[in-house]
User: Which sequence fits this backbone?
C-alpha cells in the first residue's frame, strides 16, 4: 500500500515535541507532505528542520495544494473547529489535539461532517493507549478484579503566572476553561476509558491564585453507571506535580502515577487480602508487553482504522464523553447543584459554552 499523506496545521511546540517525532516513528506507513501556520517564519523553520516539502500559511491553502489523507491539528483550542471541519470537508481524516472543541455544540457540529467509513475526526487522548490501561480495561470487562467501587483521579500540576502571558490561555473564549479543560482532561479520559459512562457529578471550582478568567483548581465527585464513585482534582497550583489515578475493586487496588506519560513501571497492582495467596491470578493482572502511553501508540491505531475504514477510538461518543463531563463539572461548580448527565440538554447554557458569563471566578461570590 502507498503511504498515508499527512498535513499538519500549527508549527508550535506540540507539533515539534510530539507529533513530528511520532510521524517519524511511523515513516514506513505515513509521510509528512506539508505544514501550515499563520507564522510563515515558523513554517519555514520547522519544515527545514524536519524536511517537509509543502509549506503554507493557512489550512485552505494546504488542503487544496496537498490533498492530504490525514490532517493533524496542533493549533490553540479556539482554532480547532474550523480546521477540523475543513479537513473533513476535503475528505481527510483528522487527528486533533485536546481539548477536542470549546463546546459540546461545536463537537456535535463537527461530527455532522463525518461519513460512514470515513473520514472521521479523532482526538489526542494518548493515555488510554498504553499497555497498562489496555490491561486494566480488559480486566474490568471480564470482571477479573471484581466490581469497581472507588476511584481517585488527580492532575496536580504547576503552571507559573508567566504561563498565562500567552494571550489565549486562561480565557473562556479561547481556551474553553482552566485545568479541567486543558490539563486534567487526559487523566479524566483515562478514568472514563476504564470505568465507562458517568451518570452525575457534584463539583466546586475557583480561581485561587492565578490572574485568569477561568478556574485554576476544581474538585468533583462523580458517579458511574456501574455504581462506582470517584473523586477528581484538577490543579495548576501544585508545586510537587503528579498525575495519579487509583482504582479500588472488590479484589484489588490498581494505581498509576506519572507526570506526562507512563509505562508498565508506573503501575502498581495490589491484591485484596483475600486474593493475596492467589499468586497465579495476581501475576496475570499486569501486562507482559510494555507499551508506554504515547502519541505513537495512538497514531498506530488511527492508521489501522484509516486502512480498515472504521471509526477510531477517541472519536464520536468515545471522544465526546470527557468533554461532556467537563461541561457538567462547570455547570455544577457555577450553579452549586448536582448535575445529572441526562440534564445536559441542547437548550442549556453549558451546551453552547462551558461557562455562564454572569458567574465570576476568584474569591467569595
Assistant:
Amino acid at each position: 500500500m502507498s503511504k498515508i499523506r499527512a498535513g499538519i496545521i500549527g508549527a508550535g511546540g506540540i507539533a515539534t515535541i510530539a507529533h513530528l517525532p511520532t510521524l517519524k516513528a511511523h515513516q514506513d506507513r505515513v509521510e509528512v507532505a506539508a505544514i501550515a501556520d499563520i507564522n510563515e517564519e515558523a513554517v519555514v523553520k520547522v519544515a527545514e528542520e524536519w524536511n517537509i516539502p509543502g509549506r503554507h500559511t493557512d489550512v485552505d491553502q494546504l488542503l487544496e495544494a496537498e490533498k492530504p489523507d490525514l490532517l493533524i491539528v496542533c493549533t490553540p483550542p479556539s482554532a480547532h473547529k474550523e480546521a477540523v471541519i475543513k479537513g473533513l470537508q476535503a475528505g481527510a481524516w483528522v487527528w486533533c489535539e485536546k481539548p477536542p472543541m470549546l463546546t459540546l455544540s461545536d463537537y456535535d457540529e463537527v461530527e455532522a461532517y463525518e461519513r460512514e467509513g470515513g473520514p472521521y475526526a479523532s482526538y489526542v487522548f494518548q493515555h488510554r493507549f498504553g499497555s497498562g490501561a489496555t490491561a486494566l480495561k480488559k480486566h474490568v470487562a471480564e470482571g477479573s478484579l471484581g466490581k469497581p467501587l472507588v476511584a481517585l483521579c488527580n492532575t496536580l500540576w504547576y503552571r507559573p503566572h508567566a504561563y498565562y502571558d500567552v494571550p489565549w490561555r486562561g480565557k473562556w473564549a479561547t481556551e474553553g476553561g482552566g485545568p479541567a479543560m486543558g490539563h486534567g482532561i487526559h487523566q479524566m479520559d483515562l478514568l472514563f476509558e476504564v470505568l465507562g459512562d458517568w451518570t452525575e457529578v457534584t463539583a466546586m471550582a475557583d480561581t485561587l491564585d492565578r490572574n485568569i478568567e477561568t478556574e485554576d483548581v476544581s474538585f468533583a465527585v462523580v458517579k458511574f453507571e456501574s455504581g462506582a464513585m470517584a473523586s477528581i482534582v484538577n490543579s495548576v497550583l501544585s508545586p510537587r506535580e503528579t498525575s495519579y489515578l487509583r482504582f479500588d475493586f472488590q479484589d484489588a487496588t490498581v494505581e498509576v502515577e506519572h507526570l506526562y506519560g507512563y509505562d508498565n513501571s508506573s503501575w502498581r497492582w495490589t491484591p485484596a487480602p483475600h486474593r493475596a495467596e492467589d499468586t497465579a491470578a495476581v501475576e496475570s493482572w499486569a501486562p507482559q508487553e510494555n507499551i508506554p502511553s504515547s502519541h505513537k501508540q495512538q497514531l498506530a491505531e488511527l492508521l489501522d482504522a484509516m486502512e480498515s475504514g472504521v471509526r477510531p477510538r477517541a472519536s464520536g461518543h468515545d471522544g465526546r464523553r470527557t468533554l461532556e463531563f467537563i461541561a457538567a463539572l462547570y455547570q455544577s461548580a457555577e450553579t452549586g447543584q448536582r448535575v445529572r448527565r441526562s440534564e445536559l440538554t441542547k437548550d442549556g447554557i453549558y451546551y453552547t459554552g462551558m461557562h455562564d458569563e454572569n458567574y465570576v471566578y476568584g474569591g467569595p461570590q
The longest strand covers residues 237-249. The CA atoms of residues 14 and 130 lie 20 Å apart. The two ends are 60 Å apart (CA to CA). The chain has two domains: 4-123, 127-292+322-352.
